[in-house]
Amino acid sequence: MENxxxxxxxxLYPIQxxxxxxxxxxxxxxxxxxxxxxxxxxxxxxxxxKDTKNDTSESSIFYSNSSNITKNRDISIDxxxxxxxxxxxxASVLYKxxxxxxxxxxxxxxxxxxxKYDIVENKWIKMINNNFLLKSENNSxxxxxxxxxxxxxxxxxxxxxxxxxxxxxxxxxxxVMKIKKNKQINNRYCPPxxxxxxxxxxxxxxxxxxxxxxxNGKYLxxxxxxxxxxxxxxxxxxxxxxxxSPRAYTIGHIFDGYFxxxxxxNGESCLxxxxxxxxxxxxxTKIKYNMDxxxxxxxxxxxxxxxxxxxNDQKKKTSYTYCNNKDKVPMARCLMGSFLYNKCxxxxxxxxxxxxxxxxxxxxxxxxxxxxxxxxTRNNCSQNNLNIHFYKNxxxxxxxxxxxxxxxxxxxxKLENIYVAPSELLDHYKGMVNNSLFSDVVFILQDQHIYGxxxxxxxxxxxxxxxxxxxxxxxxxNIIINGINKIVDTNLHDPMIYIPINDINYDVFLIIIDYLxxxxxxxxxxxxxxxxxxxxxxNKFNLFRLAQLCEQAxxxxxxxxxxxxxxxxxYRNNSKQLCKFCIDFIIHNNLxxxxxxxxxxxEPHLLGEFYKKSLYSDIS
Length: 620
Prior knowledge:
Layout (H helix, E strand, L loop, with lengths): L1 H11 L11 H10 L5 E5 L18 E2 L15 H7 L5 E5 L2 E9 L2 E10 L4 E4 L13 E4 L3 E5 L12 E5 L4 E4 L22 E5 L4 E8 L4 E9 L4 E4 L3 E2 L9 E5 L2 E5 L11 E5 L4 E4 L6 H6 L1 H16 L21 E5 L2 E9 L4 E10 L4 E4 L2 E2 L8 E5 L2 E5 L6 E2 L3 E5 L10 H8 L8 E5 L2 E5 L1 H7 L1 H14 E6 L2 E6 L7 E4 L5 H13 L8 H13 L4 H12 L7 H10 L3 H13 L5 H7 L3 H16 L1
Parallel strand pairs: 1-24, 15-19, 29-33
Antiparallel strand pairs: 1-28, 2-27, 3-4, 4-5, 5-6, 7-8, 8-9, 9-10, 11-12, 12-13, 13-14, 16-17, 17-18, 18-19, 20-21, 21-22, 22-23, 25-26, 26-28, 29-30, 31-32
């Protein structure tokens, strides 16, 4: 027992006898440094291609020499900055579990090298590239329908190109997209002038590519061009509202019917302004953040000092971490890496020509909440001209620029230290929609049945709660048993309630039931279907979020031919947001002629709204 007791004590208190005993203050200090929420970059040691040395040193397969694109050009732009900004950026896309990169510049010549990095196998693979002859640098790339598109930007000798090529992953061949030559109508149907440094984003649903800004060797641009990848034609987009000033090297993302751009370079300095472009109405809006701007301005100098200190420490090969207060707007920058994930826009690194050069920070912008958050990182690799891709909770960074070469090193960063799998609740509820196995009520519409669960439907919608109470009371009867009044189910063998619905279309009713289970509304319905659901959601079911989803879907289908009909429908059904959108659409597109004004006299209040809007526009 004594031996056991002594052994027990030595196990319980080993630290007291240790030479490495830490004081309470030391532990607190160490814990303050080891922050569990700090994200860490890791340099990957991957298998190399034959042309690349098999080591983890900073080797390179793409090089970039500096050359001044503004040489012999009489323009008022900071030439030193443009000299740096022209540095080569390889084109890349993420397809399935591989990152594909193309193009570049080696000493004395541009190349058309084509490689892929297999994320799962962690190795580089050189692609066969026999039928792609064009050699260019500073290319833009995007993915659409199993194809990697390359918009070639610069092919040497002061020649910029807007040629469009694509690599078919199924056929494994390169092809040239033949763009239709449309006649110019009101100067809208035309290809963009030859540019580089523009921001791009493709709408996967409509198959439309958006290109904003850029530089043509002489002038900066703030024009917006649209390429329909299915119809293969260019359109110069009409822009209204708070149109961004001319700029290059912004980032661009499409989300929820809007095209977002951030940052860029205006020829003198970098920018940190943020804009959203409503795709259907053609209206730009400068984003205002939900944050305390006074506090942000007050602390800006302190934050800048922190950034300078971090940059100096980075040069000394340290891994110093700096972090601004939450919801602080990122400092001005261009050439940043960026990706869109889970309703948030992430930006990494970049370059600021007037202040501190390369940036090593990491920010997240929540689109719905309109707030910025700075994410703390260690072992920072983010600089400028990075190719950033997001795959299964991991950010991959390729193409780090070290002032001389574009490197083939790959860095990885887990976006969340503890990965939480996506919720499967929605999938389970989706499987219960119109499923007789999970139902206790049957709706009868046009001789067809829709199955539902009373508990789910009544908890989500007061209309169904009242409807079920009425039919349950009709099904049950009061019976006197031994002098006691009791409610008895008259059909004990069939607990199902059957409810006829005579005033709603079967398909529309099923969509509403599906929404009550899943809280989602599909995006592939017709305009007429959305209008029917909108009217029912407002006037019958009091489902105001469903009404808002319908309003949002309808705005994506509005044009000059149907806007007035939708205006009257929205006004008469108290759909306020949709009504306001229609008014703005009509005013900004100059659709209000004498005939339309006469029609609006049927709704004097609505005509008054147009008058107030136009009066405000004249004043502003």
